[in-house]
Design brief:
Blueprint (H helix, E strand, L loop, with lengths): L2 H19 L40 H37 L1
């Protein structure tokens, strides 16, 4: 493998890992931010209070575990497939040049 190709593969791997490790963006409603020069929050009426009842279920969520395990399995299979593809390509190249 040439040095340029090694650098390219390393860069792609680093970007892929960074993209997977980066936290996802959290969205906030636009009405929470007052534009410059508008009335202050004290001048506006208070928004209605909404009461939310949350159950205290502290059990293990198997559906979330299945999704996570499936994602890890898919990434592992992609990595294994890529490794096999690169190995086979190298072997074919060697056989073609030695014959």
């Amino acid at each position: 493998m040439t040095r340029t190709r090694q650098l390219l593969c390393g860069s792609v791997l680093a970007v892929s890992i960074a993209a997977g490790a980066a936290p996802s963006a959290s969205a906030m409603p636009a009405d929470r931010f007052a534009p410059a020069g508008s009335a202050s929050a004290a001048d506006e009426p208070a928004p209605p209070v909404r009461v939310v009842h949350v159950s205290s279920d502290s059990g293990f969520d198997w559906r979330d575990a299945e999704i996570g395990a499936g994602a890890v399995l898919a990434l592992g299979l992609l990595g294994a497939g890529g490794t096999l593809a690169v190995r086979n390509r190298r072997r074919r190249g060697r056989l073609a040049t030695t014959s």
